[in-house]
Amino acid sequence: MRIGELSRRTGVNAHQLRYYEAQGLLNADRGANGYREYDESAVLRVKQIRHLLGAGLSSEDIAYLLPCAVGEAPELLGCPELLAAMRSRLRRLDDQMDRLARSRAALADYIDAAEQVSSRTYPLFDGTDPEPAPA
């Protein structure tokens, strides 16, 4: 099938399908006319890729996981590549969450400090955003 048909059958636009191919996630042969030709298994592969992307995995992670993927959802067999990639991704997510929590706490501290200064400088300041003037 050509890329347009694969796009229609999976709901993924052709640009994304070409990206998947460039990342080594999807394979296509070239017809005599130079067009990409996908076999029937590409439909399942694209659905697997979409599910794994939805789980927050990078295309690099997915490249390691696809050999362990079975079915559309997909079910992932416990092969070593899969477990190592998922553990790595989980560590990265934990690190991002830690950084966000620290950033949030610092921002909240700045807001508290600014409100304290404002309440001393402007006694009527109650810490809320001012209401817009009537039009």
Structural write-up:
With 135 residues, this protein is mainly alpha-helical. The protein has a single domain (3-121), classed as Multidrug-efflux Transporter Regulator, Chain: A, Domain 2, CATH 1.10.1660. It has five helices and four strands. The strands form two sheets. Strands 1-2 form a two-stranded antiparallel ribbon. Strands 3-4 form a two-stranded antiparallel sheet. Strand 3 and strand 4 (75-76) form a beta hairpin. Helix 4 packs antiparallel against helix 5 (80-121).
Largest sheet: 2 strands, antiparallel
What is the helix/strand order? Answer: HHEEHHEEH
Number of domains: 1
How many strand elements?
4
Helix count, DSSP H or I runs of 4 or more residues: 5
List the uncertain runs.
none
β-sheet strand percentage? 5-15%
Rounded to the nearest angstrom, the radius of gyration is 25 Å
Helical percentage: 55-70%
CATH fold topology: Multidrug-efflux Transporter Regulator, Chain: A, Domain 2
Examine the secondary-structure arrangement and name the CATH architecture.
Orthogonal Bundle
> What is the 3D shape?
elongated
The class by helix and strand makeup works out as: mainly alpha
Average residue pLDDT: 87
Give me the side-by-side strand order of the main sheet: 1-2
Distance between the termini: 60 Å
The level 1 CATH classification is Mainly Alpha
